[in-house]
Amino acid sequence: MNLSTLLIWFLRLLSTGLALYELVVGPLVNSVLADVSLPLLSDQVAGTKWFALIFAVTTWASSEKRFWALFFWYWPLVALWACVIAPGNNWWFPSEPLSRAGHQIDGLFYMILIIVAVTFIGTEFALGYALWKSAVRGKDDKVWFSHGSHRLEIVWTIVPAFILVFISMAQLDVVADIRVLNRFPDEVQSGPVAEVMARQFEWRIRYPKPGTELMTTPQPGDLYYVNELHIAATVPTMVNLRTQDVQHSFFVPRMRVKQDAVPGLIIPIWFDAEKAGEYELLCTELCGWGHYKMKARIIAETPQQVSEYLTGLQADQEEDGVADEE
Amino acid sequence: MSDEHHDTHHVNYLTIFFVLCGCTALSVAFDLVDMPKAVTMVLVLAVACAKAMCVMMFFMHLKFEGNWKYVLLAPTTILAIGLPIALFPDIGSSYYINMAPQVGEWADEVAEYRDSRVEGEHTEGH
Amino acid sequence: MATITPAVDSADHAHDHGHDHGHHEQTFIQKYVFSTDHKVIGIQFLITTILMLMVGGALALAVRWQLAFPWESMPIVGKLFGVFAGEGGQISPEFYTMLFTMHASVMIFLVIIPVLAGAFGNFLIPLQIGADDMAFPILNMLSYWFMWPAIACFGYSFVAGGATAGPANGWTSYPVLSDIASASPASGNAQTWWLFGLTLVGVSSMMGSVNYMTTIINMRAPGMTLFRMPLTIWSMFITAILQAFALPVLTAAGFMLVFDRLGLLLPTSIQSVFFVPAGLIVNNSAPTVGGGQPLLWQHLFWFYSHPAVYIMLLPAMGMVSDMLACTCRKPVFGYKPMVYSMAAIAGLGFIVWGHHMFTSGMNPALGMTFMTSTMMIALPSAIKVFNWIGTIWNGDIQFTGVFLNCAAFVALFIVGGLSGIFMAAVPVDIYFHDTYFIVAHFHYVLFGATLFGVFAAIQFWFPKMFGREMNDGVQKIHFVLTFIGMNGTFFPMHLLGIAGMPRRYADPYLHGYLEHLLPMNKLMTMSAILMGFSQFLLLGNFFYSMFYGRKVGRNPWNANGLEWSAPSPPGHGNFDVPPVCYRGPYEYSSPEAEALGQDFILQTDPPRRAATTEPATA
Amino acid sequence: MGIPIPNSKLGMWLFLGTEIMFFTAFIGSYIVLRLGSPGWPTDPEDTHINVLFGGVNTFVLIVSSYLVVVAHEAMAKKDFKRARTYLTGTLLLAVLFLGIKAAEYKGKIDHDILPGHIAETSTQAISKVDREFEAVVRQRFAVYIDEGVIETEQPDDIVTLSLDVTALGEGDVERPDSMTADEFAVFQESAKVDTDLYREWINLRQHVIANVSLSEPALAAGYLESRAQLSEGEAMPELTIDEVQEWLNGLRAEEHQLSALVNANIFDPHPIVFGNIFASCYFIMTGFHAIHVIVGMILFIVVLKQGSALDEKWTDFVENSGLYWHFVDLVWIFLFPMLYII
Ligand code: HEA
Ligand code: HEA
Ligand code: CUA
Ligand SMILES: [Cu+2]
After folding, report:
1. CA A192 to CA C490: how far, in whole Å?
2. Is domain C38-312 annotated with CATH 1.20.210.10?
């Protein structure tokens, strides 16, 4: 027997088996036998059983050619379905965007997502349809002898061109807000509240001595802490990002902030935490073996709490100083 | 074929050679004459381009080649000019504060040293 | 290039300069090892890269192991790796970094680039344009043999620094990390050897590209005008141009980085400082001497490596176009737009490199410029995608392994390309940069598109290489398993990326908000193992068919190209009858062909006058 | 089909296209690095760049370029003898070019204008002198151990070693049996010099560590004493580079017994801001250019090796080598103003 026929048979049996198991045997056994609980894919990931059913039915109903045509329809379906159930399964953004820029970024993301999803569905299903048409064609049907169509080609150049120009135009403002220094919000024009100095493999935070401004070089009286940055919630904050050794990257997923720290540069970045609380801070630029463990947190709290924290820090540090001189 | 080409277009290579020598002398002269830095820069680079054109056109026979020369050289030239231009905003200048110590502290320190040397030479000289 | 004359009977220029292949006896070594025959070299490249695919894949599986079972000893192979890792098969963080660095380096520099240009470029260019060999056969041989020092350097870099060491700076090798020895102590000389390997691969590709361009420009058979060239040739030509202009920049940058690391190799402590600023305190050692700028490397690297991603794609696009036309028995939809769009991709490919650096501290104005140009590159890609679908549309599809792999190429390239759109948008990329979204993107384009194209091409041109055909059923099973495994491995990466999982992390689960992604990673690893082991089908099929496959004639696929008019496999000098080209490469089902009672007509078939009236007896 | 030029020439032109990009990367990087580094060293006193060298070399290359082109012309006219003469001339000029280049490099090496070696601040310059001095001392001391004059368990412990050397100079060390008295006497003599050398260095080292002017007492006790005598707000004068230079000049003076040693091994402390990146660019550009010159020379040697067997089969080869050589010239045409003049 031909190997491809064998393959089709195998897939038919497999999908039927799976469908039977997911839809009939599994649930039946689980409900009848109290002390047995068969693991069901459908329990893990919603909708699996329906896919199994579709596969089973369609593989039986098709010849080899049709099967291949369907194959190119199945998988975009699965992909779409995976995306649809993703948010429900927590395979999506770690949280709502919790910063001003975050909202803009997410907005743009969803905008692109819609455009891309439509394109994806359109192209993938057109592809599958072209296959299907060929799979069901009669023996004597003529092949479409065509070297192309300029009109069509112009259409499918112009339309995406507009879409793409639109997409890039939509970004410009947001980029400017996030990155262009003189478009930084008014609240941060007074200067950075701290310096974040990345090094292998930790984040060193330097606050100016309370009541003074942050200088680019360390000043006596500056306050230091490692792997914890305290900022005031809800208001935009600016910090100076630096690195002492190799490149690192400052990534706060919940705020959608990311900026590399470049050796030799001071890069001011701003962000705002919409809610008080703890935010993970990670490093996302390969910086050596310990790259994955540059774990820190940003604590957003009320301004009073911040200044209390700083006072506490100052007290700790001075105490240490005294202890040193003894 | 190619050999015939050469015969029909006779070039007096010696003239080109003298032009090139003259240009080189010119560059050196520009260096010796006291001019604002930028002017020198523009002048010597212009001379360099002129020399390059001479070499390419006549020594490398580009003047007599077919249109393929444009196909080959136009993209190369564009890329060769474009690359430094594209690098400039990040490397030639910086959007952010460049903390190269050479720019701040070190420059000052060495300038001081320089000054002291110049003074020293003066006092020694007198 | 200016002379596009269809003059068929004009003096056969190409052969004036062709090399005189005396048919003297050749030793085995001359014939199969240090051969100057483009076909042998192509096959050498092919087999080498298939083996390298196994190496790169094995490294990938080790990466996947760590992501699914962090810090657990690897079964079986763990013992093997234990020799290097020295920790009983447990992957250490340094080792993990080395794994993905070498995985990417092997896959990109020793698999994808050489398999496209080296293997198929070599094999197909002279055959498809009707030349007897490459313009510079010896250079061609050298270009293959420069691969081996490169492989040796890469290989040596695994062990150059002792246990657990290896080049561990990612395939992008960003300084300052890759520049200063104390920053990644385990890398030591390994990183330098890695750079040497990179340079040697570059040299090999350079030799190839000059050769391909010359051959394609100057050695076409009579009648093979530029717009009668198959798209494969066009794609190889454009790829060669990309390589010729972009690669030297990487080579130069590579030399700069090597010189920056010279202090490690030489006792003189001379070392340049192109990419190190002064005053960095790395790993508690003395402040660095410097004056350079790390961003310079990123620019130079991506100036090459972005065009390089198209070097890794265009030839596959060309070959897929050829194969789709043949398997659908239809002309390529919009041949010239296909050519122009490839040229546009190549041209635009030179001005978009900055999209890898949106978060790198690049000037925002530059970022916006790069964003716009990056978006624009989707246009020619769109033309290609739609034209492929147009090619399939209403065709008489032969559902062979070749076709399925080609269709998968199109289907998966769409996914990879569309995810590129997210990243091209600066604000969105600020979130996605260096997360698994990127990893998903490039595996879709590199594996999903290019490798599937290569799988198809292997099967399609296999008869021409060995005079035998591969088993189609096995190819289909290989296709299904690889396709499922591939999507199972890489599709979820999009979701991981959206969930904010950074790439190059030995243990992402250290971070609370990523803990729950472990089961998903396990599933992906299972899929990867499935995909990995199904490659044995390809391997087995390939080597089995080489010796025991069914013998076939000159033109088993009823295709049109010149190569199909040569014997299978072609002898030394390729064609028994010097080919003359009379028509375009895609005249499937044309009236002219139908008049002959067939649905194809070889480019070498002389036109028959009043074809309609003549009986189809040929 | 194709364009009406031979494959080899087409290939050469394409190759030159890639070469252009190769040098573009270097030259482009140089331009932007330089623009991005305010205070790039241009003073010939710092860079030891000599316009004369560059100018002469430009001239040399132009002449050689001219000779290549007339050599090709001669080849085309089948006057192979003349072609050989011209090519020999080219080859000799290439050698001359490299000779001048070597002289230039030597100047750089003599002043230690090497990437990674250059001090960019006075402090770095002083500690560079200190390091170089230390290297000399260690090197000298190592000889005694190697020759078996001094036996020690810890060859790295320079302080104890110095005591041994001093003892040797003062005649307190016994002659090893394997050595004749004359030989031993030579070592005793040099031990005196080395003791002196060591003293000079350790003196400097102590000043460097304390960052105190050379005019102040150095040895720990004296130093602490005079520090104790400082009144409020006063500080010890700092060690300056001028002082170090002066001190070095003293040692360099001909009558000084250390002058040979110091002259040969210690460079003038001379801070150059951005000197290292300058040297990096300079050497990588001229170095790769020189490599190209060598490759060109190999091409010419291949032709010249044909001797009288040179015939029209080589015309294409000469033309292509010529193209390559013009390209090498072309690169230099740009390097010259960029490196030497601007
Ligand atoms: C073969 C390889 C290949 C190809 C073809 C591409 C193609 C594209 N790539 Fe990709 N890319 C890589 C390989 C490749 N890439 C690799 C290896 C990396 C990571 C390197 C690393 O960091 O290690 C990377 C990274 C990468 C980044 C950097 C992300 C980051 O690090 O932050 C970006 C950002 O813009 C990007 C964008 C694109 C775009 C826009 C395309 C476009 O060319 C895609 C165009 C195609 C389509 C868009 C689909 C078809 C079109 C349609 C169906 C028409 C309609 C479409 C619309 C209207 C939207 N890529
Ligand atoms: C052409 C390019 C290519 C290809 C084909 C692949 C193929 C695969 N890649 Fe690749 N990958 C890259 C290019 C490629 N990758 C690049 C450029 C990076 C970025 C690196 C960086 O960050 O610097 C990367 C990074 C990368 C990561 C991210 C690592 C990280 O950031 O931490 C992961 C993780 O899952 C991964 C997985 C895989 C897998 C499972 C495959 C599979 O498809 C492989 C399947 C094939 C096989 C498995 C071969 C068959 C082998 C056998 C039959 C032998 C079996 C032997 C044993 C099991 C011992 N890759
Ligand atoms: Cu720090 Cu990665
Ligand atoms: Cu890119």
Report:
1. 41
2. yes
